[in-house]
Design goal:
mainly alpha, Rna Polymerase Sigma Factor, Chain: A, Arc Repressor Mutant, subunit A, 2 domains, 66% helix
């Protein structure tokens, strides 16, 4: 199947955001890459269902999320690494403050319920509007706002952040825990 060049360029431009979202959902870079590949294959196979002029990244995120849920349902009865023992052997200690913050954020994100994690990643990490994120997750905009607010509050608690000054210079962390969306302790 041959895609028109502008559509192919748009698909390729969405890959980094798809990889980040996939990784946030499954926590494994190899699984995330497989999920992105599956998403792109499904998108290309069903490109006639995409409405030109609409939000291609949101459409792709919806496909990715649905693919993840399908895999999750298949695997929910089998556990690959229940205690994280294997994962712990594959990691190394971060050597810079930014790496430490990213690691702490990833660990805190992993402790969120899936629906909150995907909400905070879509809105805070991917920059989708509440409306776009709600469409990806097939829920109402008010539900998405609630999920994001609760996720931000839970992340702030898990990361022991009480004031905006404690966020540091890390832009992804600042985006996820936007000051405008948290009620900081006095």
């Amino acid at each position: 199947m041959t895609l028109e060049p502008s559509l192919e360029t748009s698909l390729l431009a969405a890959v980094p955001d798809l990889r980040a979202f996939a990784y946030s959902l499954c926590g494994n870079i190899d699984h995330a890459d497989d999920l992105v590949q599956e998403t792109l294959m499904r998108a290309i196979a069903n490109i006639d269902l995409f409405t030109p002029g609409t939000n291609l990244p949101a459409w792709l995120m919806t496909i990715l999320r649905n693919a993840f849920i399908a895999v999750y349902r298949k695997r929910r009865h089998s556990v690959e690494d229940p205690n994280g023992t294997l994962a712990a052997t594959l990691t190394s200690q971060p050597q810079q403050d930014g790496s430490v913050q990213v690691g702490e954020l990833q660990a805190a994100l992993a402790r969120l319920p899936l629906y909150q994690r995907e909400a905070i990643i879509l809105v805070g990490g991917q920059g989708l509007s509440y409306q776009e994120a709600a469409e990806v997750c097939d829920c109402k905009i008010g539900t998405m706002k609630s999920r994001v607010k609760r996720a931000r509050a839970r992340l702030a608690k898990l990361l022991a952040i009480e004031h905006a000054d404690e966020l540091g210079p890390d832009l992804p962390l600042r985006a996820a825990l936007s000051r405008d969306n948290l009620h900081w302790a006095a």
